[in-house]
Design a protein that fits this description.
The structure is a homodimer. By secondary structure, chain A is α+β, with helices and mostly antiparallel strands. Helices cover 16% and strands 38% of the residues of chain A. The model of chain A has no long low-confidence stretch (mean pLDDT 92).
């Protein structure tokens, strides 16, 4: 339904490859839900800064966390910090006969907005659980939750999903007709995330079994 | 040798986890050379924008390219565009007994600087070859190089590696001593890139063999 789409804005309409842009809410959610690392951009003394950071999506919010000493999180105190959070999945390397038409298949989401510090204790606890769950589903209930001291050392910020767009490329190379006879291999090399065998901590009691949610045969952690 | 390190600056010294920061030139190069996608940050109308884009490292330069119509590339006309380019590799999910000590193992490089448009034809050709090579080593000589029309449609920008830092986390979880007896599995789940079987274009002449540089058994494309 069109009513479920995000509203395009001047800055979420790309100047090029507009056919690759989407404002579909379900698509945006699926791209966000398949990741856990975003690149967070903000402006410091007039210059851009981009830092990798974990996130969780909860409904129409992104939550990010960090030390109360970190610069962007301190900067999100009232009236908030203008940010741009971008999540990208690379799905394939696209090899055309011509260098010019080389590309990658990818799915990305760009979120523009103002990040605000979360101060409500219940929302902070929810956000921290969600970030653990985003990385390893099933883990937040199978670890010790943060105590008061740890909570006090942790800043949580929220970014609402309002000015949001997805962009994606799929499919094979798009060579020019006059290049089709050139003697170069063309096609796609699929790319994905792979997980290795879990490595227990050196001080782990051998009686503690590997939880099912960490099995590399599970949906979440299967090798693509 | 200390003389080969990048010089730390106010904005490349982190406010937290300083022990994870490095200015070692070889380490920075190795992190950049193992990737091909950066997240490029710039400021537009006072607000941060972060976009995924391909890059190549050539010596002490990063090259990026795009359509001559793209906003950041147009913005790099004289006197240049202040940017921040960040490259991140996720190496593992770190599961501690406590939610608080959960982390990821990663290697990242952050480059601050001013991007300039490259207008010299020889440097532009070198940069475009380098971007193809960064993604698929061996490919630039095994494809049709850009013609005059394609070159005219392509903008190339250069960002010098000057104000640069790496940051990395390695190793297992760092639980507090009082948590070691808790009945939760702890350790690291390794993460890496994986490549699938090459998928030939539908219109590929079957007589064109898969090139050796694309073999998923090669160093570049082996499944980790």
């Amino acid at each position: 339904m069109a009513s479920t789409d995000y509203q395009a804005t001047e800055r979420t309409i790309p100047t090029r490859s507009r056919e690759r842009a989407s404002y579909d809410r379900e698509l945006v959610h699926s791209i966000l839900d398949q990741g856990y690392l975003c690149h967070l951009g903000f402006v410091r003394e007039g210059a851009p800064v981009v830092l990798p950071t974990l996130y969780a999506r909860v409904g129409e919010h992104l939550y990010l966390h960090g030390s109360t000493g970190s610069r962007p999180l301190r900067g999100a105190a009232d009236p908030g910090l203008p940010v741009c959070a971008t999540v990208t999945h690379v799905d394939g390397l696209v090899l055309a006969r011509s260098a010019f038409h080389h590309s990658i298949n990818y799915r990305s989401v760009v979120v523009h907005g103002t990040a605000h510090q979360v101060t409500d204790p219940a929302e902070r606890a929810l956000a921290l659980d969600a970030i653990v769950e985003q990385v390893v589903p099933g883990r937040s209930a199978d670890s010790r939750r943060a105590n008061a001291r740890e909570l006090a050392a942790t800043a949580v910020i929220r970014l609402d999903l309002d000015e949001v767009s997805a962009k994606l490329r799929t499919g094979g190379p798009a060579d020019d007709p006059e290049d089709l006879e050139l003697p170069y291999w063309s096609g796609v090399l699929p790319v994905g995330r792979a997980y290795g065998s879990p490595e227990p901590a050196g001080d782990l009691d051998p009686a503690v079994a590997l939880p099912a949610y960490l099995s590399t045969g599970s949906d979440q952690f299967r090798v693509r």
